[in-house]
Each structure stands twice: as structure tokens, then as C-alpha cells.
């Protein structure tokens, strides 16, 4: 025990030194020669580990883009400046999961604690992006009395349009889908901004509302005692919070289930993220309620769901399938040794590092035995989701509507694609942000560029739904296309859900007439 405590102490000291070293390196200039080496390193690792690198772009075209990039690097750059040059090339590969890590400043425990006691500067609003313009759709704290529908024109005298031009090329979805971009920009605009400008305590913002321009000075405020106490209570894990996967940061639940009518004929299930946490219990209890209520309709809402666990969507599908099914096709790798490149010890605390060291032999052999060479000579990884799964005893047999939009990505697109192919549901909304024919993700190898130290996470598995591929190179297309605009959001109108409810009501009326 004495030696373990010494190891933990040493690792903690090393961690503090590492943060200081990283932040210093993050702002230091790197020579053009070294940056060009990083470009070559990036492309080499992508060719080595990405199983579908030339899915949406030809090898010749990608070769040209990397070579062209190197010719533009003719002066020293900081890692963040280099990020803004390299990431647009990565985005041209058109793999939504493939993106450089933004070289953000790292904070000590003391700094993190201080920030936790303060409110966000820009994070206190909800946003809507349209035509490279940024609007505020919600202001819960009535900050500076800014009204929903207000457009942000500039921040600290720099036009939002300038930022959009710079940030847009950093974002990619799967293939030639475009619906994903605005949804994702809503969430990452200020990530890019903070990466460039740092965490600010104040900002001068120019706004426009009802043709009236106004300058607003935003300031980072400290949380009062009531707010801190409310946060503390919010973090306590009750049974309800566990099952519905409560997210303290947003004061919301990842999963919700309810009936929309008095006689429990119509059920509504909202899944914000396939996080896996307590999901088995959530689905078991929810579908038991559906069966006991003898419900006729289920509305499954996966809008703005960026994905998550394959295991969870396989389990969810088993409650919707009328017969045994296979969710995904066998998952391809570049080689049978690729699974060993997943950075097993990455981001481990001192205690976790020790535990992982003891468990490493088991991890090593499990990865070795999980990959195999197929008869076609291609390397595959064993996944239970590529094997037959039986429907659950409480599987729902009624009519299912699935709500999708451009924010439905990754696992959300996989399950939507499979459900559509099997003609099990009616899809309503917008084309998904994730591809209809699959994506590259699964688990990752986190590479670090040798000179700029930027992190490059590379998905190692080709994950494709078990369907006949459309080869459209786009997202899952809804059966009924209904788009939501900003005015709908401001008016708190859910036009997609309203359409489904109206459709169900009409079906029920027709059934009464027929009876």
C-alpha cells in the first residue's frame, strides 16, 4: 500500500507538470518543417488504420489535398493556428466521426473549481444557426433582457459571418449530407471561439432585434448560494435520475417515456443519447408499461441524438422487431492487430492506471481473440450486434413512428436505417446527419501529432446496418419530410410531433367510422 500511495503521488505531480507543459507548448510556434512532418504523419496514420478512407473521396484527390496543404505552410504556426489549416482537409474525407481534437487550454484542479462557481458567458443561451447567421432562441436567465429571436451580429467587433466562414470548413458529416451542419454548429460554435480566444470574463456583443441594433456587454457572473445548492441537489443520483439518465450540466434527462393521451393509446419515447447507462432497465420498464396499457402507437424520438452505444440500440431494436434480426453487418478493420492500437491507458487517473496495468493481460488477449480474418481476406472484429438477436417477450407490435432530423447521427442513423429497411416504422422529419449506409467509429486509436501535439482520434471499425445499401452517400431519408424553422422553435411548436399526432388521430377517426 505504501508503494501504491507513492506511485499515485508521483503521478499526480507529473499530471500538474504535464498541464503546465501542454499549455506552454500550445501557444509556442512550431516551424514549417515540423508542421509538414505532422501533415505526413496524419495521412500515414489514416491510411494505416482507417478502414474506409476513400469512401467519399478518391485517393488521388486526397493525396492532392494533403500535398497542397503542405505547400501553404511556409511560416511558423501555433498548434491552434495549425489546427485551422489541417482540420478542413480532414473534413474533406467526409467522415463525421473523423476530426482533430481542438487544442484547448487545459486547467488545473484549482482553476476548474473556480470556473464551476461561475456561470457561463455564452453558455447561458440556446442558439439557432441559419444561413451562417446566429440567433438566440432561449434566454432562461433573462441575461441583459435579450429576447428570443435576437440575432448576434458580432462579438468584440468581429462579425459572426467572419467566424462562420472560418468554422464551417471544420465540420463534416457522413458523405454528402448537409442537414447535420447547422445542428452541430449550434453546439460547437463557441468551442471553436474559446479555442481561439480563450475563456473570457466579458464580451461586447452587437445584437439585432426587430430591426434595432444594440450593444450588449456580457459578463461572467458568480453563482449565488441558492444556485450552488440547487446544483448540489441536482447531482444527487435518485432512482429516477439513474433510469432516465439525468444530465446535471443541462438539467435534463437523456431518456423520457410518457403517454400522450388519457387512455394510454399513444406512447412517446425520447432518447437524447444512447449512453447505455441504466438503459436496459429503462427499456424493460417502458415496454412493460406499453404492453400493460395495450398501446396502439409508439412515437420514438431520436432527433438531436448524436448516437452512442451499439449495444443499446440493439437492445432497443429487440423491443421493436417482430422476428429475430441482425442489426449490423460484420465490422471491418484494416488489420487483425488494429484493436491493440486503442490507447488502453489513455486519460487514466493514477488509481485507474494501476488497476488497468493489472488487467492488461486480459484486455490484450480479449482483443486478439476478437479479431479474425474472413474468407474474403478482410479483417473483422467480433461484435454481438452482428449476430442474430431474438425479440423481447414484451416487444411492441403496434404502429411505430420515428422522429429524425439533421442532428440524428451515428447510432441514431444506424437504427433509423435498419428500421426503415425492415419497413417496421414510418420516419418523420429531416434527413439524418449520419449516413444511411453506415459509418466508421466503434472504438478509436488516439494518435498525437509529434510536433504540434494535436490529438487525432481515428475510428477503427466500419459499422454498417444490416440492410441493402442505397449507395446515395447521404443520410437516412424520412418517409414524410417535415422541417422545423426558427419561428417554430420560438413559438415552441413541434411541427414534426404535431404531424404524427394529427396522423394518428385521423387513423383513429377513420377506424371508428369503419367500425
TrEMBL record:
Keywords of this entry? Coiled coil
> Which Pfam families would you find in this protein's record?
Peptidase_S41
* Residues in coiled coil: 211-238
Q: Which residues cross the membrane?
A: none
- Presence of the UniProt keyword Chloroplast in the record: no
Offer an example of a GO molecular function term for this protein.
Answer: serine-type peptidase activity
Signal peptide range in chain numbering: none
For this entry, list what GO says about its biological process. Answer: proteolysis; signal transduction
Limits of the Tail specific protease domain = 236-483
**Domain of life from the UniProt record:** Bacteria
The name of this protein is Peptidase S41
Task: Write down the species.
Answer: Chryseobacterium aquaticum
Q: What are the leading ranks of the lineage?
A: Bacteria, Pseudomonadati, Bacteroidota, Flavobacteriia, Flavobacteriales
